[in-house]
């Protein structure tokens, strides 16, 4: 199966448009309505709620904790409650399963043809097996109602397979370096803009007994993020996207040098001595408690950092990942994009009615996730007053407004088998069991060529 437009997400102008639409639209409705036109269309089935029969919709997501401060979780539960209020005759039965367990659950349910009516997934290679198995409904015909006019251009690219659309986007997510200014000041270190400045900061922080970077490699994907951004800086987003879509190669001098830079950080104990056995949660808590000076992570941590009970509230700034001398990438090439969605079961009953619920929910979640400080909205929504918004989200919006290219999460761009091969090779590498040269050759042979 060939995915359309997968070689590069056309989001260069998307972030500019999204931030312009969201931030400059303040005050239009004080945030009380998602969008007047969208609300007029949502739920427009020709019947009043009282006249409609009761309808039960089953929904699965990875948002298992309703008390989480993560912006994605906050946005999800606010959207869920808003949707229940909007459609009083619809019962939404939600099941949330956290972390990697969710992926396992969805894959098993797909194999048994026991998926719910609506379920959370990722674009790119992760969803390809579901589509190949006819488990997900194409929404091309349903979306002819004008819905796509409300969406920022380019943000549906990762949900198009064989020229058919299967999901609506939630947000535009980016990963960036978070820096604890207070710890940098204690170490007398400069906030880095270049690789040499990053290395110097690491040494200065270590000299003061401060762990330079929090990284929880036990969950694998945080370790992948470092490989990805270093590859983007060395090879550039076009080369990275080409390798991920098997139109290019991982076995190049640039990818090998990116791995060598990664090894340089590992050997320097930039991540501490036990990062391979450290979980994502433990690493995040290390940064949130002020015990590590930097963390490269997605914007979903903004809410936790700026929470009233956070020990680092007001002490953290996001920065673009430093540039590397001789690298083909630049500071305005980003790791991230639009790739999270909910999809509809291919065997869905009451498609038209559930579609109205679905699109209202997605649009509302897009707005609420942005307001919670986790990425930019993928919808042309009026978010109202942003004066009380998470300051980190606004800063990231400004930083990414000059973006020239994006490369999305590797574990979502690759399909299931290739993802596992990538993780297997990656974890051997970060554990020091393979060299940078052997690692990139293995990525090419096992992931790109499927050997």
TrEMBL record:
Pfam families: SBP_bac_1. Coiled coil: none annotated. InterPro entries: Bact_solute-bd_prot1, SBP. Residues 1-25 form the signal peptide. Keywords: Signal. PANTHER family: ARABINOSE-BINDING PROTEIN-RELATED (PTHR43649), BLR3389 PROTEIN (PTHR43649:SF14). This is ABC transporter substrate-binding protein. It comes from Paenibacillus odorifer.
